[in-house]
Please model this.
Amino acid sequence: MSSVVLEARDLVKVYGRGENGFAALRGIDLRIGAGESVAIVGRSGSGKSTLMHLLALLDAPTGGSVALHGAPTATMTARELNRVRNGSFGFVFQQFFLTAHETVLENVVLPLKIAGVRPARRRARAMDVLERLELAEKASSRATDLSGGQKQRVAIARALVNDPAVIFADEPTGNLDSSTGAVVQELLFGLQRERGITLVVVTHDAELAARCDRQVHLRDGRVVPGPSVPSHPLEPAVPDGAGAVLGGPADVLSVGGGAR
Amino acid sequence: MRPADLVSSAITSTWRGRLRTTLTVLAVFIGAFALTLTSGMGIGVNRYIDDTVAAFGAANSLYVQKSQPLLEMSAGTGPRTYDPDSTQIATGFGVSFEGLSSEDISTIEGVDGVASVEPVYNVAPSHLVSGEGERFQLTLGIPVDGEGLQMVAGRTAAEGADEIAVPDSWVADLGFASADEAVGGTVEVVMTNLAGETRTYEATVSGVTQASLAGVAMNPIPSTSFNERLYAYQVSGAAQPVPASYIMARAVMDDPAQAPAVQARLEEAGMIGSTVEDQLGMFRAVIDAVVWILNTCAVIALLAASLGIINTLLMSVQERTRQIGLMKALGMSGPKVFGLFSLEAVVIGLLGALIGATTGVVGGTWLSRVLAEGLLSGLPGLSLFTFRAPTVALIVVAVMAIAFLAGTIPAARAARKDPITALRHE
Model:
């Protein structure tokens, strides 16, 4: 691997305090190289979502450190963290998290809007991405009128619009049937291959995990060598899928995008 | 986020919860409307008082009295030493007070800054007889008030003639068909002297006066010379000559700016001088108090409306928890989230304030016109609601500020949300 994008050292995350504390992560060491695709797999409660939140700088670890491009993130200010997430990461969630009453274009420009990009420029960039994902004709449709697969493609377009270095995907196919799930998979790996975007995927989906360059198996907050229990290699994806655009039940999964 | 994006996002979000926004705006509207009207009334009435003072043209006059019976009754001061040389003047209300003596008049004349002094006799006629022989009670007005009166017809009573100006409201009862017809008509003033004898004086109606807020034109006003003639008979018939005594005196100053100094010197001499402005100041104080009470009610309505804003925005924050979580995950800072929601409160406040102020100005202007032609036609020149652009603008800004303050509570709650928890919200 040429360079390391994200490096976790002895990551510990404890929820609660003292006797009642629950250790979600008990010392994780992980290096993710530029352009690599990594699947984080494990049962519910194994700590995979927590690990992804820490890597995506959405949460601070109780112990250990996360370095981005070799720079420690613990000393970054809230403003710098916001700028990194806004400019270098992309997020894809199981429930899509599109704003229902807004158009596809309005949803896709959100990261650029937050970054303070001028309206004409952000619109051009969003249309560019939508065209690449063959969604240009849907630009002025309301997000709520789209099918599940289209919604997730719009969410991927939103994750791509800021030209990220890392995309974090939390169960990106969890709410999709297998054929639309396959389309979304193709799209994500295509981006990784062609644009060198680093992919960090949290998933229950064995097939999706298998397509990644590397699988990181978690069990009780620790990295383990292989599938935790051989007879149940991976849990099935949460069945109760798609849900409303902003509403589904289900676990929060995210797929992140990389920085430039 | 660029400021323009924050504003347009706030407007879009406000518009999304249409019914909720409408109801909250309505609450703000009621407060802003009430505040606009009450402040407009304060300005309207006070401006009318100013105009009345200006119409009197007597800013350089000081009305001097020996004592202020009504003030003394209410002030709770101790008894005053009896002066056997002073005369008591009965007011007809069971209150008597000391009159001014000739000596006092000379004292006033001697005060620096006083150009001339006109003593005023207290004349209490027995009654008035109309041209048709009907008899009415009569309290005469003070001749010096004649200056600056607004006339419906004719003119004020002329010096040297036995003339009298009557109020507009007396015309019909005195048997005249109209104010114009009353001018030149005659009435009889019946006097009783100290010996109990009566005598009738015929007086010509010189003009008809219009009522005003100052209340000086509510009684017939004789000319100074006629008043003096009536007084001479009133004090006649006594065993001993009655010493001269005046109900008050009008001191004309060289310059109205000297009033405070002259008033201070009069006070040293045991007399009280008040300007027209002082007398109207009492009206003004009462009106200001009423306006402040009404304003307070309007502000209370606004405070209630601000609770509505807090409630509306708390619901909005609750509903959009996941959107807030997403925006924060995508790098939106807490202060920007705060700005987004507090701007929504400002938008609601601005809508309510603009609609309320506009309706208040339009409604108040219309009501003023209707009242001026109807209920308040007796007070010409009074525009009950008067609006000034800076005051209305201040109300709009104040309402927006209240709305912003109300919005800070839900906005701070939104800004504090943790993105992960917010995204998990169902």
Observations:
- Confidence is low (pLDDT under 50) at residues 228-260 of chain A.
- The domain at 36-57+77-258 of chain A is CATH 3.40.50.300 (Rossmann fold).
- Chain A has one domain: 36-57+77-258.
- The CA atoms of residues 100 and 145 of chain A lie 8 Å apart.
